[in-house]
Design goal:
mainly alpha
Amino acid sequence: MEYFEIFLQYQGWLYLLLLSLLEVVLGIDNVIFISIITDKMKNPALKNRARSLGLTLALIIRFVLLGMLSLLIHLIEPIYAPWFGEFNYEDLVLLVGGLFLIYKSTLEMHRSVKHEEEKTSKNELTFQSVVTQIVLVDIVFSFDSVISAIGMTNGMEKELNADPIAIVYLSVLISMLVMIRFSGIISDFIQKNPTIKTIALSFLLMIGVFLVAEAFGHNIPKGYIYFGFGFSMFVELLNMRIRRNKAQ
């Protein structure tokens, strides 16, 4: 029960709200990737199942990482640095994940530009293939999410005189429940609007570039790319409204 003593103070609830919002924002890229990759599945039931399973696995991976905080601390210690300077396991995960996102985003953008529709069963992704790709990306994004959550709670224990780990767990749970609830809506919206899909793929491509840069020690604030994505979405929604009015 000592872990929940932090909720006896109003600051504990405030931190829970702020951290939950942060986790939702950090999970947007995860939801977008899952929405795009599951779009290749023709069976609606399997598509919904893969989407829900992917986000559920993301939640489980985050909880596992939170339960391995002592190991995560060791992951940021240098292991190999002849060419890259200080390089560690966390950097390796970010590098592999970033390169994977760049590859998948570029491939999907190429298919969209070439108008290559996935009409044949040969091109349709299997359920196992989709889940495997989702798990790989979940691991990368979970690292980012957990490390950000831990960083935000630094100093919270001294300020509130209570262990903040309960807030971290609850914020992760709340954010994933929110994403599971709205993932279907986001997926359908992206699928029905090709221009939105292009913006989403560009966003994932930039996230991949940022992850690779971060792996090599270049820490670029992700707020820039989230702001750019939000502004691009706002402009495109205005364009969609204009096109709809002209059509009418």
